[in-house]
Amino acid sequence: MTLTLALPTGRIFEETSALLQSRGVSLPPSVRAGRRLRIEAHPFTLVLAKDRDVPTYVEHGVADAGIVGVDVLSESRPDVFEPLDLGIGACRMVLARPASRPAGFFRDLSVVRVATKYPAVTTRFFHGRGIPVEVIPLAGSVELAPVLGLADCIVDLVQTGGTLAANGLEIDEVLFESTARLIVNRACFRLKTEALRGLVRRLEGDRAS
Amino acid sequence: MRHRSLLEIPSGVQCFLGDEARLRREIERVAVEVFRGWSYEEIVLPLFDFDDVFTRGGGGSPADGVYRFIGRDGEVMALRADFTALVAKVVVSRLSRRELPLRLLYGGEVLRYQPPRAGRREELFQVGLELLGAGGVQADVEVILVAREALSKLGIDDAVFTLGHVGFALDLLAGVEDPEKRVAALEALRRRDRDGVRRIVGNASLDLTELSGGAEVLERARDAAGSGEALARLESIVSELGTLGLGGQIRLDLSEVRDFDYYTGLVFEIHAQGSGLELGGGGRYDSLLGRFGREMPAVGFYLSLDRVSELLVKRGLSSPERESSLAGSLNDALAARTRGERVRLVKP
User: Fold this and answer.
1) What domain range includes position B329?
2) ipTM for the whole complex
C-alpha cells in the first residue's frame, strides 16, 4: 500500500531529504528543482508543502503522514498522531530581549509587546505566567522589531543564535526544544497500520531500541 | 456600532442544500431504521439544559467548547454539547422505573465551539444509541453489530472498527502519580507520541505503534504490559466478533482513550477508506450514570452524519432524486399523488 508523505520545503528540508536518502528513499532530482510538488518515490508518494501546511494536509488525510518540526506543531496544534521523534532539525524556541535590558525586564512592563511568527505559542507562554502580552505577528525578520522599537522582545526559533547577536539580542528564556516529528493522520493509523509501521521502522533506522 | 449586512453569517453556522440535504435525511432514516430493528426506542432530547449537565455530568475536555448563555432566571445554561450526558440524566430521572436493559436511540445536532480544524465543525449532526443496564461482553458486541449493520445498509461495507480499552492506558499510567505528569502522559498517548510516553512512564521498550494492528496486538500487549482485565475483556469481545464473521473489520489500538473522560472500558472508532476523519465511535461508560445518582453499566456509539454523507458523496453512492411526472392541473396532480408518483405542477 502506497503512503502519501508530506515533506516540508522550509527550514528542515535539507535534513529531511538527507534522512530519507540515508533510509533508502531516494528523492528524484525533480525534488530539488522544486517545481513539481507531487512526486512518486517508491514506495511513497511525496508531496512538497510549506512547513506550516504539512499538518493541514495530514490532519485532513490528503497526506497519510508528514514530517514537521515541533515549532509548527506547537503553533497549530493539529489533531494528528506523533509516533516518532526524528531527532533532526534541532533548534530552540526562545524568548529574546535586547542585550541592553536586564533579564526578565518585561515583567515590570504593564503590557509586553512581543514580535513573533508564533502568536499562539507566545500568547500561551505569557498568559500561562500571568503576564499580559500584546502579540505583534510578523512573517519574517522578527529580530528587527526590537531594534526599530516595534516590540520589547521577540519569541522565535533559534539554531545558533548568530542572528540574535547580530541584532543586539540575547536569549532570556528557552520555551522548548524543537526537533522534527513524524506525524500521522488518525484514520491512516487505523487503515494502513502495516505500511505505517514499516515507515516508522524505516525512519527510526539505527535508533531502534 | 459597525453596520452589518443582513447576509453576513456568524462563524460556525451551516446550511445544507439540494442532494446533500436529501442524502443527510436518508442517512438518518436508514440508521434509525436499523437501530429500531434492534429494538432501540427513539428519545427526543432537549436542545439546551443547565450547563453542569455537560460539564459536571458529561465531563471531559469537550466541555471546554460548550456554548453557554444565561437563562432568564440567571442560571448558566448550555446548548446541547453531547447526547450521552442528556440520555444519562433522563434515564436516572424519568425512566427510573423501566426495566433494564434500556435501549435508546437519538438523532440531531450537538454544538461545540471549536477552533477551525479539519472536519471539526461547530454544529455536529449525529445519530446514536445507548444500551443501558447491561455490563457484559454481549452488550459491547451488540452495539458494534448495530453500527456495522447501519453502515452496511448505507453502502459502506468496509468500515473498520478500531477497538481499545481505557483500562489498558490506566494500567500503563498506574505508576505515574503526579497529576500534571498524568495529564501530560495521557496527552502523549492521545498523540501516539511514543518517545513522550516512554519518557513519562519510564518504560523504554514500550512501543505504541506495536500496540496497533490486528489480533496479534493482544499477544504483544501481554508481553509488554501484562495488563490482565482490560486485555481479557478485549480478547473476549474480539473473539466473539470473529465468531460472528466480523473479524476482517476489526482492528485494535490499545492507545485509544477518546476525548471524553467518562469512558471506563471498551472504546472504538469507526473509519473507512476514503475518509481521513472518523465516521463515528463509542464505548463503555459504567460510571457516568452514577454521577447522576444511579450506578448502571452502559455502552453506546454515534455516527457522524457529516462524515458519513461526505464519504457517500465521495464514493458516488448518493442516489439521484426520483423523476417527477408533470401535471397540467391540480386534478392531474392529485391523481398522480394518489398513484404514489412524484409530481410537479407545470404552472402553479
Assistant:
1) 324-348
2) 0.74
